[in-house]
Amino acid sequence: EIFILLYRDSKIMSRRQTLHTVKKSLSCISRRMTVSCFNSKKLYLPQIRTKVVICFLSASVRTCTSITSSPINSIMSNTEANRSYSKGSWDGSDKTGFDSLTHPGYSAESNPENFTGGWHAHRKVWEENNGDMEDQPSDWIKEIFDDITKYDYESMDIGRPPRILVLYGSLRPTSFSRKTAYEFARLLDLMGCDVRVYNPKGLPVRDPALEEEPKVVELRALTHWSDGHMWVSPEMHGTITGVFKNQIDWIPLNTGSVRPTQGKTCCVAQVNGGSQSFNAVNALRLLARWMRMPCCTNQSSIAKAWQEFDDNGRMKDSSFRGRVVDVAEEFAKFTAIMAPVKDSLTDRYSERKEKAEKGRLLTQAEKEKEKKKSIMVEEARKG
After folding, report:
1. pLDDT tens digits, 194-229
2. Which of 3, 4, 72 is nearest to 35 (CA)?
3. Most Cβ neighbours (<10 Å): which of 161, 163, 298, 342?
4. What sections of the chain are H helices per DSSP?
């Protein structure tokens, strides 16, 4: 991180004029430069991977401006980003490329051609009125910044920010599950987590013949990448939506000897059109158990969700919003603690024995084939 401190003479140049000059100068360095401004007496920065920070100081005001010089929230289209990155950095086979904090998937918009990327769509709200220091929208998350638990993950056993994949269960652009998922993502961002939100648009209905589709490849790579999942689904007909279940169906319980979800943490939430219910979160917990994912004990169920959000898609102050903060805070702690011990917790006798005998874990198809072979050998011996 690079920090630059500017002292301006208020008699010569206003804050807005200074910012405009800085932006114009920095645009010569990178076309992918965006600026987010925050009016606050206390220093607040969203969790941005590479940043140049410019503080305007005067006798009465301290304004902090965060300028991103990485592709995060960049003006470079995701289509261009897809072309500039190799296939391996999108399907996860190039682990270094996929894990990189400068991956083009960290953008505010998904690729219009195949809907990949857009992992930071929840940050678009922080770009509103970009560059206008005097007319910034209020943000309840910024207001509670000092009261949220934040950890120095580098000094913990995990050694880095927890990697969180956020999934939601609706395709409607203004859906309440999406809005809730974005609020969770912003909170987890604020708590120092590395957050990627998956856009379910463009994901085909589960069909083994479509495993090479970009959205399928992206979802599976994100699952391998993550330490934990944040799941948000509407309740429909007493259970989760087909849109959400389809995402889960595309995540395999095992890929050869690799079990993508085993030991990863999970946190669940649901939104309701009517009175409060817990059918969806109970269904989500059942899925997590079958996928061998330890679930966070806390959860959120938002009743009459249409009353709980303002016109900008932000949660209103209520007990439901307080619970969302509680859940996000517990989930960040839970994942940071669980991720380093995942392999130890999932080290099983039967799997160690199979690896010792076969050299690796076999797929179910391979096990069935060996079983049939042993039956044939036994029958031949008896005959």
Report:
1. 999 999 999 999 999 999 999 999 999 999 999 999
2. 72
3. 161
4. 15-26, 78-84, 88-91, 95-99, 140-143, 176-190, 214-225, 242-250, 279-290, 319-338, 342-345, 349-358, 364-382
Q: CB-side exposure of 68: number of CA atoms within 13 Å?
A: 27
Single-letter residue type at 268: V
**3-state DSSP call for residue 186?**
helix
Q: With CA atoms as reference, report the closest residue to 258 among 44, 95, 25.
A: 95
Q: What is the pLDDT of residues 259-303, one digit of tens each?
A: 789 999 999 999 999 889 999 999 999 999 999 999 999 999 999
What whole-number distance in Å separates Cα of residue 7 and Cα of residue 193?
32
Give the torsion sign (CA, 319, 322, 328, 331).
negative
Both tokens assigned to 268: 């669940």
Superfamily per CATH, domain 104-126+139-345: Flavodoxin domain (3.40.50.360)
213 contacts 200 by C-beta, under 8 angstroms: no
Q: Which residues pair with 243 in a beta bridge?
A: none
Q: What share of the chain is helix, strand, coil (3-state, %, to 5)?
A: 40, 15, 45
pTM of the model: 0.77
Longest Cα–Cα distance in the chain: 102
> What phi and psi, each to the nearest 5 degrees, are found at residue 177?
-70, -35
